[in-house]
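Q: what does this look like with zinc ion bound?
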Amino acid sequence: MMTLNIQLFAVPFRKVSKTRKRMRRSHNASVAPTTVKCPNCGEMIKPHRVCPKCGYYKGKEVVKVKEAA
Ligand SMILES: [Zn+2]
């Protein structure tokens, strides 16, 4: 049976085996954010959101975006 090592307080790093440390960190990887191409301006944007570049969503302008001079 697997022992549940619930750490309620700081544990000296030598007391945690390489394997246990690596098992814990197996879920810590960062993932690249999902992006889709804006169909209006072609900018890579987050899906299901108004494009921050052109203010378009679902084919029409829904917010005004300040033009960068
Ligand atoms: Zn856009």
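Residues 38 and 44 are 6 Å apart (CA to CA). Strands lie at 36-37, 44-45, 56-57, 60-61.
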